[in-house]
Amino acid sequence: MEELSAITDRETIFAAKMAQTNPQPPQLGPWKITAYDQENFQGKRMEFTTSCPSVTECSFDNVCSLKVECGAWFGYEHTNFCGQQFVLERGEYPRWEAWSGSNAYHVERLMSFRPIGSANHKESKITLFEKENFLGRQWEVLDDFPSLQAMGWGNNEVGSMKVHSGAWVCYQYPGYRGYQYIMESDHHSGDYKHWREWGSHAQTFQIQSIRRIQQ
């Protein structure tokens, strides 16, 4: 009982800090994630039902494994929702490779995370544009595509995007590999005019696969 009380108190503190450092619209939930400071769900553990801007504030040096029990989540390489992004859907992640996938950039750090409020796998729509600021050829996407080029997109770059509904994860390479960029209908009003708006780790227009996020 003491452990549960401590968890509740810490979550209350995190929620208050989150409101100050990264205000967001009210979230409907439910969400639940359990983080561990060792691989294979060992060591210290803590449950979260709201955003965590820094795992160091709950005496974690790093998150080494986790279980997503409810909802879909954003994971970040650094504190305060910065660095490489990782989509965390329902399931178990015994080691860092499980959430970074075939990223090939060897990122073993997961220092902050937050729920994805707009994730809706069944009702998702995004429009891709050839050039930045919603110019050039456009393509409305309603489904998952492991290779945009194989499905008719002319090159390996996307200039800008409009997320009309749901949340999407875009990948640098075909087959859902490489850097992950999570696009939300309730972030930037769903408008991503330039690759710099895709995330603090974004360095290029290159996107070659895309899929809906499963809530």
UniProtKB/TrEMBL annotation:
Protein name in UniProt: Beta-crystallin A3
SMART domains the UniProt entry points to: XTALbg
Single Gene Ontology BP annotation: lens development in camera-type eye
GO MF terms held by the record: structural constituent of eye lens
Transcription listed as a keyword: no
Beta/gamma crystallin 'Greek key' domain mapped to chain residues: 31-70, 71-117, 124-165, 166-214
Keywords: Eye lens protein, Repeat
Name of one Pfam family that matches: Crystall
Domain of life: Eukaryota
Function in brief: Crystallins are the dominant structural components of the vertebrate eye lens.
Membership in a protein family: Belongs to the beta/gamma-crystallin family.
Organism name: Eublepharis macularius
